[in-house]
Specification:
about 450 residues; elongated; alpha+beta; disordered N terminus
Length: about 450
């Protein structure tokens, strides 16, 4: 079912490669993944390669079938001779040249059928099917990576939009600070230095907002690139980051076991190892004798004139059939070389599988550790930002009443700004860490 779906998707992609990109005004994560399924170049390449691997499977199955060849040929010749032989066999010169015309017509249908070749055809067919499975798993690998990266960049765009809102709120605080400072300056409760400091703070916050706006544009451009579209200005991202879940209750050993069963990279390495094993077994089959059945039927005709030329109904018929055995007793060590190389390739494939297993276990454990750390930082950051906001609100009232100095209030504003930005960053890091772990577990939503 999946293979049929991949072939259908590949056909649609190739047929509509130059089609218009229908982009919604508000781009959700699901819509972004759907678009990536249609336009991401890496995923398109993987799907087309999966479709092409079917030809290898068909070719492997074809080794069980007889080969047929049809032949149709016409020939003609014209020769002239000025010499001949007499009744005693002596060469003589003819009084005038003698011309001979010849023509022939042949039609034949021949075939051969390999009855036994050391099961080389059987193992080659199994190897081709394993190779197709490896290619299909490669599509899953590509799809998982594309989906994970689209999700991460979508979260980046969401956080960039939220950062703009935070910077706008901080800009409002800076403006209120400047208004309060100017009002207190007019009643001699603040100095001109305080007013200038408030103006500097406002200018710095305006710069921070400008940076946030620029970063938001860059995140949308990055998201559009990963999706595979070029019109980043046609949409705005819409959605929320995933809810925070304490990962401490998960068992990392169970997560590793899930990854070993579900991660497409492991499935791909398993299929590649199986393909190498079948290929090695097929190569060893070259040492066995080959039993082949042959047969042909044909019609032909030859004339001492051009009468047989382009004759589609020759009069002479022939039928041939036979069985032959060919045993390669010595091939200049070529068979031994091929067997040794195929066996080495099988060993390499199994070592690659073991290496991938070890790598995946390390990545899952590290990703889980990163997720636990990101969650702890998020909890602490959320607590800090709540306390900082309460402190800022109290300090703003006191500053407007003139009960705290400009420097003290300025430090509180700066710290509150840092805490708000750190909280947003910790949310993004937690979300990205979750995506990475899901990708390794093979459980992230793939774009098909």
């Amino acid at each position: 079912m999946r293979r049929a779906l991949l072939i259908a998707v590949a056909g649609v992609l190739l047929a509509g490669a130059a089609g218009a990109q229908a982009l919604p005004d508000k781009l959700t994560l699901g819509a972004a993944l759907d678009l990536a399924a249609d336009y991401n170049p890496a995923l398109r390449r993987a799907i087309v390669q999966a479709d092409a691997s079917n030809a290898d499977v068909r070719a492997g199955f074809g080794a069980f079938l007889p080969t047929l060849n049809a032949n149709l040929g016409f020939s003609g010749s014209r020769t002239s001779t000025s010499t001949g032989t007499d009744t005693t066999g002596q060469n003589i010169e003819l009084p005038r040249p003698v011309t001979f015309n010849n023509s022939s017509s042949t039609q034949s249908l021949s075939g051969s059928w390999t009855l036994f070749n050391g099961f080389e055809n059987v193992n080659n067919y199994k190897a081709s099917r394993a190779g197709a499975s490896a290619t299909a798993a490669g599509v899953d690998v590509s799809g998982t990576a594309v989906a994970a990266e689209v999700t991460r960049r979508f979260f980046d765009a969401l956080q960039a939009r939220r950062l703009i809102e935070v910077e706008e709120a901080l800009l409002d605080v800076s403006r209120r600070q400047l208004d309060a400072t100017e009002r207190l300056f007019r009643v001699a409760a603040r100095t001109e230095v305080d007013v200038l400091g408030a103006q500097v703070q406002l200018a710095q916050q305006e710069q921070a907002l400008a940076r946030a706006l620029g970063d938001a544009v860059k995140t949308r451009v990055s998201l559009a690139e990963q999706i595979g579209i070029d019109d980043w200005s046609a949409f705005e991202v819409e959605g929320e980051l995933p809810a925070e879940i304490d990962p401490a209750g998960f068992d990392v050993d169970s997560l590793v076991a899930v990854a070993m069963q579900s991660n497409p990279r492991i499935a791909q390495r398993h299929a590649e190892a199986a393909q190498a094993d079948y290929t090695a077994t097929a190569t060893k089959g070259r040492r066995w004798p080959v039993l082949t059945a042959t047969g042909s039927i044909g019609r032909s005709e030859g004339q001492r004139s051009y009468g047989a030329l382009f004759d589609f109904n020759p009069t002479d018929n022939a039928v041939n059939f036979g069985v032959s055995v060919r045993w390669p007793l010595f091939t200049g060590f070529q068979t031994s070389r091929a067997v040794t190389q195929a066996s080495a390739n099988a060993t390499v494939a199994h070592e690659s599988l073991r290496e991938e297993t070890l790598r995946l276990e390390r990545e899952v454990r590290n990703a889980f550790t990163d997720l636990v750390t990101a969650y702890r930082r998020l909890v602490l950051a959320q607590r800090s930002v709540e306390l900082s906001q309460r402190r800022l609100a109290m300090a703003q009232e006191q500053y407007e009443l003139g009960t705290i100095g400009f420097t003290d209030f300025q430090q509180i504003v700066t710290q509150s700004s840092q805490e708000a930005r750190a909280w947003l960053q910790s949310q993004l890091e937690y979300s990205r860490a979750g995506v990475t772990l899901q990708e390794l577990l093979g459980q992230i939503a793939r774009p098909w």
